[in-house]
Each structure stands twice: as C-alpha cells, then as structure tokens.
C-alpha cells in the first residue's frame, strides 16, 4: 500500500485527506499538524451563556465558488447552511472620523456625481469619473493593484475606497499587492466595457430591487459556525480508520528514502521519530514548505509575505445602538484615518444565527501591512481601544458586556507583484524533480476557504496521479 503524508491540518490539509480517502482503499494517509488542534485559522467562538456563536477567523464562504457547496453537501450539512440577512446591506467607510455610505457602484467605483458624496471630495470624485474618458492602456504583465487603480481612478479613490475594500481582504498594502493574483477580474471588466466606470454603471442596478432576494446570498456559513464544518471533516477522517492523525507533531524536514521520502517529525514533548512515505501534500505556508523540503529540492521562493492580524469580538446590549443597526453590515477604515481598527463586521445584523435579538455583536479587525502597531497592545487594552473607536463612530451608548481577542500571527498571505509566475515556477520544479510532492494552501492560489478546499483536493489528485503513473 502506498502512503501519503499530509503536512498541515487546516482546511486545505483536511480537504486533501478527504480527497485521498475518496480515491479508494489503496492509499494509507498520515496527517501531521504542529498545533494542538485541526482546522487552522477557522475558529468559532461559542458562548452558551450569552447565546453567541461567532467566528474568530474566517466568517463565511463565497457561495458562487463550487468547492464551498460541494464540501458542505459531501458532509451532509446542506440543511445547516445560513445566508446573510437580506436587509443588512449598508456598508460604510470612515472619513474625518465619521461614517459615510460606501459609494454606489460596483466595488465602490462611482459612475455619476451622486455616487460618492460625501465620502470623496469634489476633486477626488471628478478624477475618478474622468477614468471613463482615459485611453484604455492595460498592463501587459503583472503590476501592483494600487498602481493600476491609481492610474485609472486616482489617488483619493484608491486611498478611501480601493485599498480598504480590495486590499482589506488580505490585510495588505494595495501598492504591494499583485493585480493578477488578487483582482484579475478588473482587467476583464475594463476590456469588456472600455473603462472601469463604464463597467460599474453596467453592473449596478438603476434602482434597488423591491423583489424578494434569492434564498441564498453571495456569502454563506453554517448554523453551528464554520468550526462545525472542520469538526465534521475531522469526524469523517477519524471514522474512516485509514488516516493516522498526529497533532503536536512538527515535520522538521523531508529527505529521500529510496524512491520515496522520509519525514522527520518532532513532537512538542521533544520526542522525535521518522516515517517513510511515497508522496506528500504540503498544506502549510510556502516558506515553511520550502524549508522542510530543502534537503530534497531547492524550491524556487514564492516570496509570500504573511501579515499578522487580530479580531476583537465585542458583545453589546442591543439598546447600545440605534435602530439603523439592523441594516448595517459593517464599516471600513481607510489607512489615512490612522485608527487601530481597519474594519468591522456587524455580525448580529449580518447573520441570523449569531446572537439573540437582545444582543448586538460587532467584530473588529486590527492589523494590516505597514499599519499594525496596535497589535503590540495587551488583549484588554486592544479591546478597549477598539470599543472606544467603535463608540466614537457609531455613538454607542453603552460599553461592551463581553469581548474576546483572537490573534493570528503571520497568518494572512499578501501576494506580491509576479506572485503567480513564482508559484508556477515552484510547481514546475516539483513536477520535474518530485512529482509525488504537491503544494497547496492560502499562500499560493487564493485565500478564501473555497480556494483552499479546491487547492487541497487538486494537490491530493496530483499526488495520486504521480503514484499511479
């Protein structure tokens, strides 16, 4: 029987394990994770005494990506799917210490003068609208997302809309992110419509629809929190009887062993052991995978920067806020505002399962590339700072009744210019020298949970194909 090691027990590694299981009974699987739990950054906070179920890590999956629903259906969790509340559609952006409505238009790209007031100045709005009259010169190779958008829409739009919205997903600096690896659809839209402003006009409904929204929203989660998906995956793996699970187990290096590989593992207890395998799925960050496999291959460096972040869950009595809270999905904080928090999600307004009607739950985010000094604060002080900034912007009449700070050290991948080419070089090097080794995860081809599921499954299939060739 062939043996495959999966290194990394987040959603990518768990997806690889399930795909290997579904391939038949001729493969033995060993799963290694250096931490004390499986599931990676997916962490659900469950506080029964408050009736609160809220995510500390990723809070949803993009429903249009097939891997999301495919996973949920395969786990028998279709009936647990929860969509966002249809009324929670209002997103705000902070400027000058107050909340301004997000500009109307696709991705906040204005298409007439009424779209972006009062967020943008008249000069900033005029510059953004002038994009429709600019010649369409698109970059031939990869370029920075910020450079492309500044050329098209101007600095003010980028600083107050583009960066908090588009780079915020990565906790990144828009001027250092790859256009091709993050928002390649912008190029397609510009080509199809002649400009981004024209694209925004074409994609934005002229009036808000009065028809009931479709049953399933763009983003979905499950009733017990996303950790319940991880728990179901782990349960499926454990009940198979075909996978050895090793937590507290760090794979230090991989060496050659005949036609296969030898994993050198160290437990947190200090105990060390070795395991020979025929193939490996690396579901850990690129720099860690590169170091582990360095005795076998000098893999080209993907050079993915990992940004540290924190989330602060703030629970309030519902009476702390006015009636407009039910329509709010959150607000973004542009870099020039100089605040500790970079954004918030109004979790209890956005998701119906998060808390009872008597409570309001807000999740604040802290830390982005080049602006993460507040992460040095102790948990209590960081939570107080976040609550103070939320109160200053929303007029909250009461203090939080409960909070929880969760830190993610070096956890958010930032794809630099040329990222996809570097990933391709690494994949080609493995395909040539080590075809039964595959790399996958958020550091390579997408940070969303469905992206990670897809990558884990494809990595498993790649290793299986090499072993059966």
TrEMBL record:
Q: What GO molecular function terms would the record report?
A: oxygen-dependent protoporphyrinogen oxidase activity
Mainly localized where?
cytoplasm
Write out the catalysed reaction: coproporphyrinogen III + 3 O2 = coproporphyrin III + 3 H2O2
Cofactor(s) this protein cannot do without: FAD
So what EC number does this one have? Answer: 1.3.3.15
List the PROSITE patterns. Answer: PROKAR_LIPOPROTEIN
Q: What is this protein called?
A: Coproporphyrinogen III oxidase
Q: What organism does this protein naturally occur in?
A: Alicyclobacillus mali
In the UniProt record, the gene name given for this protein reads hemG
């Amino acid at each position: 029987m062939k043996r495959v090691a999966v290194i990394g027990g987040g959603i990518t590694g768990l997806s690889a394990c399930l795909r290997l299981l579904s391939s038949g009974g001729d493969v033995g699987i060993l799963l290694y994770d250096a931490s004390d739990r499986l599931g990676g950054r997916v962490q659900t906070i469950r506080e029964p005494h408050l009736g609160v179920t809220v995510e500390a890590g990723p809070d949803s999956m993009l429903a249009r990506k097939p891997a999301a629903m495919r996973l949920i259906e395969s786990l028998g969790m279709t009936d647990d799917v929860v969509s966002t509340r249809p009324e929670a559609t209002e997103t705000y952006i902070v400027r000058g210490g107050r909340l301004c409505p997000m500009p109307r238009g696709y991705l906040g790209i204005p298409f007439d003068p009424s779209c972006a007031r009062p967020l943008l100045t008249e000069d900033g709005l005029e510059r953004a609208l002038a994009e429709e009259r600019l010649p369409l010169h698109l970059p031939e190779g990869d370029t920075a997302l910020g450079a492309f958008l500044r050329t098209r829409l101007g600095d003010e739009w980028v600083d107050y809309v583009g960066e908090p919205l588009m780079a915020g997903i990565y906790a990144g600096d828009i001027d250092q992110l790859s256009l091709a690896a993050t928002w390649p659809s912008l190029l397609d839209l510009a080509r199809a419509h002649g400009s981004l402003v024209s694209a925004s006009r074409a994609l934005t409904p002229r009036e808000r629809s009065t028809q009931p929204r479709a049953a399933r929203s763009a983003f979905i989660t499950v009733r017990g929190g996303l950790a319940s998906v991880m728990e179901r995956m782990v349960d499926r793996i454990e009940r198979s009887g075909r996978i050895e699970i090793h937590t507290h187990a760090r794979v230090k290096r991989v060496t050659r062993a005949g036609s296969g590989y030898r994993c050198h593992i160290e437990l947190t207890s200090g105990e060390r052991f070795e395991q020979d395998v025929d193939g490996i799925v690396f579901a850990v960050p690129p720099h860690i995978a590169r170091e582990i496999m360095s005795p076998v291959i000098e893999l080209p460096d993907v050079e993915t920067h990992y940004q540290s972040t924190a989330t602060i869950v703030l629970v309030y009595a519902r009476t702390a806020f006015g009636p407009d809270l039910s329509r709010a999905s959150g607000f973004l904080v542009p870099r020039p505002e100089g605040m500790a928090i970079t954004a918030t999600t109004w979790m209890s307004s956005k998701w119906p399962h998060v808390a009872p009607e008597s409570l309001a739950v807000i999740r604040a985010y802290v830390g982005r590339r080049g602006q993460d000094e507040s992460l040095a604060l102790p948990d209590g002080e960081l939570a107080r700072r976040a609550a103070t900034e939320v109160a200053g912007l929303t007029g909250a009449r009461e203090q939080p009744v409960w909070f929880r700070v969760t830190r993610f050290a070096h956890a958010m991948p930032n794809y630099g210019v040329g990222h996809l080419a570097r990933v391709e070089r690494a994949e080609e090097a493995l395909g040539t020298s080590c075809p039964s080794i595959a790399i996958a995860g958020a550091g390579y081809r997408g940070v969303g949970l469905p992206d990670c599921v897809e990558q884990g499954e494809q990595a498993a299939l790649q290793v299986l194909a090499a072993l059966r060739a």
